[in-house]
Specification:
231 residues, mainly alpha, MetI-like fold, 11 helices, globular
């Protein structure tokens, strides 16, 4: 218990002292996670809504593929993106490997199936009469989908939060594509893994506390908005 208490004391000191390494890791994590979540939302939300609300021949196959991608191992995603952006890859000339941009590509790929699946589930739980009614009233197909999005907006918000939680907690892809470069691509999760292995438990604990604080804040915001809707 003495070791835990002392490590916790040091972690709190590190947090409130504004350690440059801690600030850099937190900032990189938040920026990369925010951009990845935004890109995943722009791609995943329309995909989930179209699959959930539409009827087309390959719908069942699309659902199976989406569920399969949800369970895609992170190392597989990292390996795929590594092959694309590595020096001998198709996008090798873009020099994305071991940069925040390279991490964003990999994390976006991981988050898209999650955001799409949550959006799809929200659509399935909505009133099936929304789209037909909108079409009957003269709305275009796109306008009817927009109206559907408004009706399930809190489900879509939950999809965005789930996507954010997925990318900000990721270690494997961030390590493979970012290289864990201090002050450049080192995130909270990769720093926790590295520093804990080096015996710097207090440093890892400090970042772990911040990471949990971010998750608590994001999920607290979602709960607040959902409760506000009910009131």
């Amino acid at each position: 218990m003495g070791f835990i208490a002392e490590s916790l004391r040091k972690a709190i000191v590190l947090i409130f002292s504004g350690s440059p390494d801690v600030v850099s890791a937190v900032w990189t994590s938040l920026v990369v996670a925010a951009i990845s979540t935004l890109l995943a939302s722009l791609l995943g939300i329309p995909a989930g809504i179209c699959i959930g609300a539409g009827e087309f021949p390959l719908k069942r196959m699309s659902l199976v593929l989406l569920n399969t991608l949800m369970a895609m191992p992170t190392v597989a995603a990292g390996l795929l993106v590594y092959g694309l952006i590595g020096r001998r890859g198709v996008l090798g000339s873009w020099n994305l490997l071991f940069t925040p941009a390279g991490m964003i590509v990999g994390l976006t790929l991981l988050a898209i199936p999650i955001v799409a699946n949550y959006s799809l589930s929200s659509v399935k739980g909505a009133d099936p009469r929304i789209v037909p009614t909108a079409l009957t009233l003269g709305a275009s197909l796109i306008q009817s989908r927009v109206q559907l999005m408004r009706e399930v907006r809190f489900g879509i918000l939950a999809a965005i939060v789930a996507g954010f939680g997925r990318v900000i907690s990721e270690v494997g892809v961030a390590m493979m594509l970012g290289g864990n470069i201090r002050g450049y691509t080192r995130t909270m999760t990769t720093a926790i893994a590295l520093e804990t292995n080096k015996g710097e438990f207090a440093y890892g604990l400090a970042l772990g506390i911040i990471l949990m604080g971010v998750a608590l804040a994001v999920n607290g915001l979602l709960t607040f908005l959902q409760e506000k809707r009910r009131s």
